[in-house]
Design brief:
Distance between the termini: 68 Å
Number of strands: 29
Structural class: alpha+beta
Mean pLDDT: 94
Largest sheet: 8 strands, mixed
């Protein structure tokens, strides 16, 4: 007998509702045969294709997607047919002389298009070689709605099809796509025609093409050829990524129970940047910007190396979650991104235990997710997507980081073996297909024998952060009896509206037993735990919830802080700070807890404290509290830096190295004289020695110098940026030009945006970095120069970029300015970024006002 859930699921799967703007389901592609002829010098390309289609219902019109293409010919079963294009809807409509019969047919097109300078569609990356000569690499970026800028396509994830791609490249250049090269043939014009193997069925946004002066290095991993592709001269910097990918492939093959199905997996390094993404999971041809894949030990820190591993782990996880099994529509984007984020952390923690990635996630990703989820700008993980701009907005911390946290909570609740059993069943059942989230819940429910949706719906179909509060406890018969209630945690009033979750939570006594419970609603839930001692709520911090203790319970946590597990120490620090920020308890609780972080504490604890002190500092920047607060922070953190030291130590752990970076960055940003002087000395030495700054501290040293730079020092930084030939280092220098707190330097940086000194992606990065220290200046400039700004932005980022520049402002007029600009320039459905920026400003002011008395008392101690 079918459960009520499975009956509902069957109805949902068989009759999917179309979102506004989705294509008709009457015709679907089966196989694309595409030939592309790029002209990199002219920045144009020409294309032809034949598509085998399945006419599911007799129709005289065929509608598919096309954007920014000049289509010159359309055919149906070999005969020319009239067509129209709707620029706003990004559609191409063929009108047939009579209704096409149900069954297989062929449509064909010819067109020309433009190679873009920013990362959407087919785009170019310009860079300098070591000898100063210039090169241009071509690559594609199709997620989410940009495959239609490359070729006419049914450019929606549910229209899976096979792809046969052919493309020309100049003699001597290399071309790359999803599948191995089937043949290369010399052409009469001196180019080479690459033909690639046919792909498995996949969504259009996963197609990839790239070419240029490239080199490739490969390893064999159980019959799969894993490659790194890069500009010439740096491919050996991909060795670390190759080693990581080899281990990850074995790990994922085992975890998912379905082996990686393609014959090769290339990882392509592009020496550019984007406002929207760092890497893209094209099936078998994963694209990374170079800093996310290649490790240069001369200029990259330990945290950069760890970042490469986690990004590779994320994109490789997508080869299953996203590529093999793909969400049906962008409403369920989290099935791709939330799971890839969770798998990246799980795999990284298992393969590199000394990094303590699981614990670090408690203080990092968990806090980032809750930070936006606890405001009026939140949204459900599964959200209604109807416009192209809304697709772009969906790639946010709720989708990625809250999605990751909710998956981790479900694994913690069901048990890792049971959870994996459900994931394996899901992967085996739906490979090469499209799904909705309910199909995942059904497989997890079957594996666990419980209705997973009871918990999962609460966390995916509504926004917000639950709050579990201990209202009292007592020792009775060798057990601790506690009462818990469930409410809602919010940083603004709109986020404190009562809401109900079924919160799975583990409760334990230190040195005693542990138990699990589901806490739901405001009515008291009694729990009983073996042992009479300090009670720990949400032990291991596996559940996505804030927890708050009564006075006695919190005093016990402070007293026994050192006896807590690392995750609980980090999570309690985060909860205490956030609860004070939300007005639920006094900040004094956090100060008391922070005081228990001793000199020999785990580096992750000091890293967490450093981050929270940085947030506190940011609340009062430019106010009378700034100077005394920074002095107090320096008094706390300077001795820690003295113990850690400026130089990397043999055998030190990755968390210790990361702490050094965090401490130098924080003290440098606060104007610590010693750190600022060291930074100036190091940067001055760059004039004679490009390796003068030790790699372990290069990032925070440069950011310190850039932040504190005088106008004259800023000019030196500009000279470094102009002279630099390494494209990764150059991109870094360009962004650093926006860090200066000195307003005259910031205005000088704005002037560069009107020149061709830097590439369009570099100018976008520079404008965003200027907004870090000068949000009002950056926003006003962008509004006044909107056409110019749009020219160097990616299409998918235009609805959120300018409004986001003002999000750091403390000017009371800024929310009104953002709202007015959005109303005049964005459709109603594309104003999510504006609403978020306005919410951030309001929350920051409310938190600053709320915490001010406690901060003043602390400074007076």
């Amino acid at each position: 007998m079918k459960s009520a859930l499975s009956v509902l699921l069957a109805l949902t799967v068989s009759t999917p509702a179309l979102a506004a703007g989705q294509l008709p389901q009457t015709v679907a592609p089966v196989v694309y045969d595409i030939t592309i002829r790029p002209d990199a010098k002219a920045m144009t390309f020409a294309g032809e294709e034949t598509v085998d289609v399945d006419v599911r219902q007799a129709t005289a019109t065929i509608v598919l997607n096309a954007a920014e293409l000049a289509v010159s010919r359309a055919t149906f079963d070999g005969k020319a047919v009239p067509f129209t294009m709707d620029k706003a809807a990004q559609t191409l409509t063929l009108t047939l002389p009579q209704a096409a019969s149900v069954g297989r047919h062929k449509v064909g097109f010819a067109w020309t298009g433009t190679i873009n300078r920013s990362a959407n569609g087919l785009f170019a990356i310009d860079y300098s070689n070591a000898d100063g000569s210039q090169s241009r690499m071509l690559a594609t970026q199709f997620e989410a709605p940009d495959a239609r800028r490359f070729a006419p396509m049914w450019d929606e994830p549910a229209f899976k099809a096979k792809f046969r791609l052919s493309a020309t490249a100049p003699k001597g250049q290399m071309a790359i796509s999803n599948m191995p090269v089937a043949s290369v043939a010399a052409q009469a014009d001196g180019t080479q025609l690459y033909r690639f193997g046919e792909t498995p069925v996949m969504s259009s946004y996963l197609l990839y093409f790239g070419s240029g002066d490239l080199e490739r290095k490969t390893v064999d991993a159980n019959g799969v050829e894993i490659g790194v592709v890069s500009r010439k001269g740096v491919v050996d910097q991909g060795d670390y990524a190759l080693g990581s990918a080899t281990k990850l492939l074995s790990y994922y093959n085992d975890y998912f129970g379905t082996p990686y199905p393609l014959p090769k997996m290339d990882m392509i390094a592009g020496p550019g940047s984007s406002q929207f993404f760092g890497a893209m999971e094209n099936w078998g041809a994963i694209f990374y910007f170079e800093n996310e894949l290649l490790f240069n030990p001369k200029v990259m820190t330990e945290s950069n190396r760890q970042r490469i591993h986690t990004v590779v782990a994320h994109e490789m996880a997508h080869q299953w979650f996203g590529d093999l099994v793909t969400m049906r529509w962008w409403d369920d984007l989290w099935l791709n991104e939330g799971f890839a984020s969770w798998m990246e952390g799980k795999a990284t923690n298992d393969l590199n235990p000394s990094w303590k990635a699981a614990a670090a996630s408690v203080a990092g990703e968990r806090e980032s997710a809750m930070g936006i989820d606890a405001t009026s700008a939140t949204h459900p993980i599964i959200r209604k997507i109807e416009t192209v701009d809304q697709i772009g907005e969906a790639f946010d911390s709720i989708t990625y980081l809250k999605g990751q946290a909710v998956i981790g909570m479900l694994e913690s609740t069901l048990g890792s073996d049971t959870f994996r059993k459900g994931i394996r069943a899901y992967m085996a059942k739906y490979k090469y297909q499209n799904t909705v989230t309910e199909q995942l819940w059904e497989e997890l429910s079957k594996a666990s024998g419980t209705n997973v949706a009871t918990i999962a719906h609460d966390f995916t179909l509504q926004g917000g952060v639950p709050l579990v509060t201990m209202t009292g406890s007592r020792c009775e018969g060798g057990k601790t009896i506690a009462t818990l209630t469930q409410g809602r945690f919010g940083l603004d009033e709109a986020s404190k509206t009562p809401q109900t979750w079924h919160v799975p939570i583990r409760i334990a006594t230190i040195g005693g037993a542990e138990t699990s419970a589901i806490v739901t609603g405001a009515a008291a839930t009694p729990v009983s735990v073996g042992g009479c001692g300090t009670l720990v709520l949400n032990q291991g911090k596996g559940s996505y919830t804030r927890v708050m203790y009564d006075d006695a319970g919190h005093a016990a946590i402070v007293r026994d802080y050192a006896k807590l597990g690392l995750e609980d120490r980090l999570g309690t620090l985060g909860d205490d700070y956030a609860l004070a920020a939300g007005g639920y308890q006094d900040l004094g609780r956090w100060f008391d807890l922070m005081a228990q972080v001793k000199a020999d504490a785990d580096p992750l604890e000091w890293d967490t404290v450093t981050g929270e002190l940085s947030r506190l500092d940011g609340l009062y920047e430019g106010t009378p509290l700034e100077k005394p607060l920074r002095a107090k922070i320096a008094a706390i953190l300077s001795p820690v830096l003295a113990r850690v030291g400026f130089e990397a130590r043999p055998g030190e752990t990755a968390p210790a190295s990361n702490l050094r970076e965090a401490l130098i960055g924080r003290l440098g940003a606060s104007g610590d004289p010693m750190v600022a002087a060291r930074a100036r000395g190091y940067v001055t030495a760059l004039a004679k020695n490009p390796d003068a700054i030790p790699a372990a501290i290069r990032g925070p040293i440069l950011s310190t110098y850039a932040t504190r730079a005088t106008p004259a020092e800023w000019e030196k930084l500009l000279d470094l940026a102009k002279a630099e030939r390494n494209p990764v280092v150059k991109n870094c220098y360009v962004s650093l030009l926006g860090f200066a707190e000195d307003e005259s330097a910031a205005r000088r940086a704005l002037g560069l945006l009107k020149s061709d000194t830097f590439t369009p992606p570099q100018r976008a990065a520079l404008l965003r970095s200027i907004a870090g220290a000068h949000p009002d200046l950056a926003f006003d400039w962008a509004v006044a120069n909107k056409p110019l700004v749009d020219s160097f932005l990616e299409e998918s980022n235009r609805a959120t970029f300018i409004v986001g520049l003002g999000a750091g402002s403390n000017d009371p007029a800024m929310p009104g300015k953002i709202e007015s600009w959005a109303a005049a320039n964005l459709p109603e459905g594309s104003r999510g970024g504006a609403k978020r920026a306005i919410s951030q400003i309001a929350v920051r002011k409310a938190v600053a006002d709320r915490l001010k008395p406690a901060v003043q008392n602390w400074l007076a101690r």
